[in-house]
Amino acid sequence: MRRQLVLDTETTGLNARNGDRIIEIGCVELINRKLTGNNFHRYINPERDSEEGALAVHGLTTEFLSDKPKFAEVVEEFCSYIKGAEIIIHNAPFDVGFLNAELTRLNLPVLTEYCPSIVDTLVQAKELHPGKRNSLDALCTRYEISNSHRKLHGALLDAELLADVFLAMSRGQNSFEIDIEEDDAPKQEVVTFDMPVGEIAVLMATDEEMGEHEALLSGLDKQIKDKCIWRTTV
Question: Which residues form the Exonuclease domain (predicted)?
Fold first, then answer.
């Protein structure tokens, strides 16, 4: 069983080192690339105001957050939920930096102690679509995922959209599955003929062709974050 969690946060500002805090965490669970509905969503009282620019993005006011639990009150539940899963984040350094700051503030291990594998979909998108805009909104447009209901940023909403984007971006390898039963496969006549070995022309791939072949395989590796089938069968 492969368990993945698509994670997003909202914060009071852009810099955890300057005291900005997490105000919302949203996680969407995937088991073997299927949405399970076992999601995690909490609003958090940051014990400070949001910066004006951040407030314009997420719309979560100090008044709204004033009666929400503090991070210390949800951390045990959060760490238990994420333990052992692969984490998928868009622009991972930002969210990981904030989560690590919150965990360190409570003298707890950093995120990779709970989840050793983290996938950054922004890096993935830049590799797949170099030179293009790769924001979450841009990727939703590119993969025809509706985000018309996204008026403000929200951790759970953005995690749900990112889950759809991630599945779309990494779907390619699944298309190589073959469902033909052996008994149903068309039978082909095997033709053999004798030819002296010395008369067989062997054309070796050029360095340029080998380079193009390696680039193609590397692209497939990056899409699935693993070795593609053509590397595992040789």
Answer: 3-175
